Amino acid sequence: MNAPPAKDYFETLFDASEDPWRFRSSWYEARKRALTLACLPRLRYRCGFEPGCANGELSAALAQRCDRLVVSDVAQAAVGLARRRLSGFAHVEVHQAPVPDQWPAETFDLLVISELGYYLDTEALDAMAAKARASLSAGGTVLACHWRWPIAGCPFDGDEVHRRLDERLGLRRLTRLSEPDLLLDVWSDDGRSVGEQEGLTP
Length: 202
Fold this sequence. Notes:
single chain, 7 strands, Rossmann fold, alpha/beta
């Protein structure tokens, strides 16, 4: 098993480019954001948390679905970019904080773990899952989305990240979207479908 990338790895990426994964210019990334938003089972959330926010492109979309949103990243350069991107959203907080070590001490009804899990080692990934479960309010949503192709230097691929999250969250999976490039899962302790929540089913 390879060691996960160190903090300096991400600082170097963002020093070289404000958009190292082409979140702003790639159709793949734009489509993935649209899929992420479409797979959320509720229209509005009281308070969401997105660790590993990078330059804040997904955060800006999530901000429109949350009354309050907390986002974080380990890289100082990424946090600066995210603060600039999210400056128009007064209800969004951006923090420089590594996870799982500095997980917020509050509860959330939305947790979005996107393109993050494979940068953690086994202990950190399992700890993140435990903290996510402990901080999720009743009826809340956990959404995870990860790239499925191998990433140099990462100990896991996206499939393994989701397998470990599924085991350790202990929640009901509501949605699974599996494509050659990405895996997206949604979990909750509220097993009702969107139709059931809206009273549309028999």
